Each structure stands twice: as C-alpha cells, then as structure tokens.
Amino acid sequence: MEFTSLDGERRYAELVRAAAGCVVGLDFDGTLSPIVDDPEAAHIHPDASAVLVDLATQVAAVAVITGRPARQALDLGGLEEVGVAIADAGKELYVFGQYGNERWSSTNRRVISPRPPHGIATFERDLPRVLRAAGAADAWVEEKGLAVAVHTRRLPDPDGALERLLGPLGDLAERHGLVVEPGRHVLEVRSPGMHKGLAVDTLVSELDARAFFFAGDDLGDIEAFEAVAALRERGLPTLLVCSASSEQSALVPLSDVVVKGPEGVLDLLRQLTADARDSRA
Known about the structure:
This protein is α/β, with parallel strands linked by helices. The protein folds into two domains: 2-114 and 194-280, Rossmann fold, CATH 3.40.50; 119-190, 2-Layer Sandwich (Alpha-Beta Plaits), CATH 3.30.70. It has nine helices and twelve strands. It has helices at residues 6-17, 48-56, 70-77, 79-88, 119-133, 158-175, 196-207, 222-233, 261-280, and strands at 2-3, 22-26, 61-65, 93-97, 102-105, 140-143, 147-151, 179-183, 186-190, 211-216, 238-244, 257-260. The strands form two sheets. An eight-stranded mixed sheet has the order 1-12-11-10-2-3-4-5, sandwiched between helices. The chain has a four-stranded antiparallel sheet with strand order 6-7-9-8, with helices on one face. Strand 10, helix 8 (222-233) and strand 11 (238-244) form a beta-alpha-beta unit. The longest helix is centred in the C-terminal third of the chain and has 20 residues, at 261-280. It is globular. The two termini are 24 Å apart.
C-alpha cells in the first residue's frame, strides 16, 4: 500500500474511524479480478470471497460496480454465494452492472435491468464495416445486451488498433445516439446518461452512507472517483484507491492510495478490516 500524500494517510485514518457507516465500492476487472486476454475467462481473485465477507462485518455495505453485465459478474465472481454469506452476517452486497444500468442485491436476488437502447442493434449492423476500414476486422466483439464492447487485446498491435478505432467508433456511436467508454484494450459502446458515479450517488442516498471507499483501475472508474471526491467536499470521510497496472495510470493522480493490482486491493481490504475491528474493540 502506497499513500500518494500525507492527506492520503489522514483520509485512511478517518475512514477507519468511520468504517461502521462506510460503503465500500469496488470495480471488478483489474480490481477484484486479474485482467486476462479473454474477458469470458476472467475469475475473481481466489482470496476475494473470504476477504469481502470479513470486510462486510466491519462496514455498512459492500458494492461491486462494474461495466460487465451484472449476471456475468455474479457468475464469474461467485458473488451470489458471497452475498449469501454477507446477508447471513446481517449486511448487504450490491452488484451494479453495465455501469449502474443493472442492479442486484443479496436481499433482492434478481437482476433488475432496463431494455437495450434503440441504437445498439443498428450500431452492431454497421460495426463490421468500421472494423474493416480500421484494419481491425479480427477484433473481438462482445455483445452485452445494453452495450457492445470491441476488444483489441488479442490483435497483433492492440494499442495501435485501439487508437485507430477510437475516432471512427466514436463517430458511429454518436450517429446512433450512443457513447464510447475507452478502457484497457477495449472500447465499450453504450447509451449515455449512466455511469459509475451515479451508482455511487445511489448507494450514498439509499444507504445514508457516512463514508465511502472506492477502488478502481481504469478510465470507466473516473466518474466514480469524481462522485467520491464530491462527497469529500461535503465532509464525508472518503478513500480513493487505484489498482495500478503498466497499461493504465490515469487514476494514479486522483488517488489517495496506489496498490499493485487485485492482490494489492485485497491486502488493503484486509488491513482496513483489521484496523476497523481494532478501532471498535
């Protein structure tokens, strides 16, 4: 765990003291699950389930806020079983999927989801032409129901392909009333108006959170970081954590703590759990 400043150390101490009223928000890929070439082959870190259940005993609630479909995150992470264990401890696990468009909780154990945006089907119809023109015809296209993700990680030059696709995909998305969310060797196209920051705001409002912790690794987490920073301005204890990688560093200057990938995130959560428990002893 590396604090980015003395303010980061102070904010951690404040969060420990406020842990009983704290909501812990966590991204999935790159934060709880290592990044892999095939997103469908991703799995949550093997220690994560036990760490999350123990953490939940010391905080108000735990939430996974991901760009993945909620059902996919539940299955890949074994999060339904985690939710049962957390519920047995008298606490709640939330899963917000597709940047907050979908929702699941350990109390209401079904995914609540809106209808797909109208532009997705027509965007998918035009997508192969754009991929061919950018020399990325072999990019893997992931259909997510409410969104479409174009992955370049498997291509010979994933960075170059991503750069070539960003403009044309952005133009195509705009024509269909959609927006592009860049990520680590992926461009996700979805409807505008919902992002992880709104999921943070929803949790704070519904749970009357008195503190907030958020950990993420990629550009799709920036709005969540901004929402937590706004809570800080209102006087709530907060902590922003970057799960760092060589592929993406945009969150580092926004963070209070920088850790090395999912292993570092889990080490920090263990430390937070232990410190919160000690502070209440």
